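User: For my dataset I need records formatted as: sequence, then C-alpha cells, nothing else. Please produce one.
Assistant:
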Amino acid sequence: MKFITLTLILALQLIALNPQLSEACACGCGIFDVGTNSMFATGQGGMAFFEYNFLDQNQNHSRSNTAPSGDNNDREIKTSFMKAGAQYMFNRAWGAQIEVPYWSRNFKTLDSDGVTIDSFDHAALGDIQLNGIYTGASDDMSTGFTFGLKLPTGDSTYANFDPDTEIGSGSTSLLLGIYHLGKITDDNLWNWFGQLNIQQPIISKPNYIPGNEMDLAYGVYYNGWTFKNGKKLAPIIELLASVRSADEGVQADSADSGFRRILVSPGLELDLSHFKVYADVAVPLYQYFNGNQLAAPIGYKLGTMIAF
C-alpha cells in the first residue's frame, strides 16, 4: 500500500506539471527503463549491463484504432536500441548509475511528390542518463528512489529525420523514479515488483520541446526453478503502462504526437549467480494515439548483467 500511495503521488505530480497529459512522440522508449528485475539494487556492490531492444513501428494508428497507411506520410520506423551501463551501490543506502545508449534507425516516409517512399538510415549515440539511487528507506533495500538527468548527448541534427524521429532529443530532462520489491509467498518463491519513472524536460531547444513521459511497470516472477550449482530460471509476467504528453514548439507535430499505452510482457530471467541473462516481449493490450502515428505490434528485449 505504501508503494501504491507513492506511485499515485508521483503520477499526480506529473499531471500537475503538464495538465494536457495524454499524448507523445514516435517511440516512447522510456518504457525500456522500467520492468527489468535484474537492475534493482539488493546489496552493496556494482553491476555492469548491456541491453538490446527492437521495435518495428509499421502500423498506422489513430486514437484507439488502426488507420489506413495513406493517412500518415511516415510508413515505417525500425529501430535497434542498444544501451550499456553500470550501477554501483556505495553502501546499503546510496548508489549511482549511468546508461549510455546507441540507436540504429531506418525511417521510411513519403516524399514530397506524394508517390515515392524515401528510406533513410542513421545510427548515433543517444541521450546519456545519469542517476542517483537511494535505498535507505527500508532495512532490506526493498524500496528505492532514483533521481537524475538525461543529457542532450544524442544526435538531434540529422537532416532526414523529423524532430520526433531524431535519435537525440536535443533537451535535458529531469528523471525521477521509485520502485518496490515485495514477497507474495513467505517461502520467497513468488515475488512482485513495481516501478514508476518520470521524464520531465527542463532545458530544450526553443523550436522543439519533447513531451513529458511517465512509465509504470508491475511484475510477478517465480523463483522455484532451480538447477545444479544454484542456477535459476525465473518466468516473469509484467504489466506495463506508458503515457507521454504532446510535443511543443514550432517544429513539433503536436497534433500527431502523444499516446497512452498498456502492454503485457512475458519473459524469462536466467540467474547464473554473478551473471544474468533476461529476455521478454511486449504486446499492446490498449493503445491511444493522437492524430496518426506509427506503432509496433510487438517489442523485443534481450539483456545481460554481471555483478562485481
